[in-house]
Amino acid sequence: MQLANHHAHSHFSDGRLSPREYLQEAIAQGLKTYGFSDHAPVPGSAVGLMSLEELERYLAEIDTLKQMYEEDIQVYKSLEVDYIPGVIAMDSPHILESELDYVIGAVHFVDAFADGTPWGFEESVECFERGVTEIFNGSIQAAVERYYALIREMVEDFRPTIVAHLDRIKKWNRGERFFSESSPWYLEAIDKTLVSIAEVGSIMEVNTKGYYKNETAEPYPGRRILIQSKQMGIPVHLASDAHHPENITKGFEFGTSLLLESGYEQISVLSDGEWMPAPLKPSKLHPAPFRK
To answer: Topology of domain 4-279, per CATH?
Structure first.
């Protein structure tokens, strides 16, 4: 079992409670490494979850916690950076100036409505349907293909350390409500995106949030993609995308089993400042009960 989590959110963005409370829980569960990756500010946009002023406080607090807990756990400083063309990317000035240990690249917004509001496809199923209708003239194929095209742009042009929740676009597709995930056009979009990730050497996270939140039957990405990514030599790690301390390793048992079944024998873990391969073992964590 991976004794690390590299994707987590605190009260500085859309998480709950303070970074310190996450670390206390991580130590209680025996984790060796913990990385904070709150949502980066999106300058000049209403979609941001953190202001530039809050970013300064966030960075300072993580630096303080690194020193405070250095005897107990390795603490790393990151941001989940949205890729919105012409608005924010991994090379935006406030991202480069943050001196991060690693960067998580993500696509949460796909183009925009007529009034300029970015389409946040995760917001609700109603918002998802509205975006497909108004931005893509009702074509679910065009919407999904655009999502993967944006991921490829992000990966090829900015090379994030980690690619977040690759097939997140399937959030509302349980039971294949909107599209078949075995359609040739969908598989082709996946194929091209995995080629881009493999070529630049980014780590692909296996995000268990969709599973433990009962959004999907699998993590992001699922079994089919993991089998393919293993064949292509794409490195992976487990991430819980925790928004509360009680979720910092949630879904890791299932995620570990799925990775082993997909042929993975090791994962990438940040240790002593370097990404290192670590053996993937089906052992169990023994978490202490979360105490607020």
So the answer is: TIM Barrel (3.20.20)
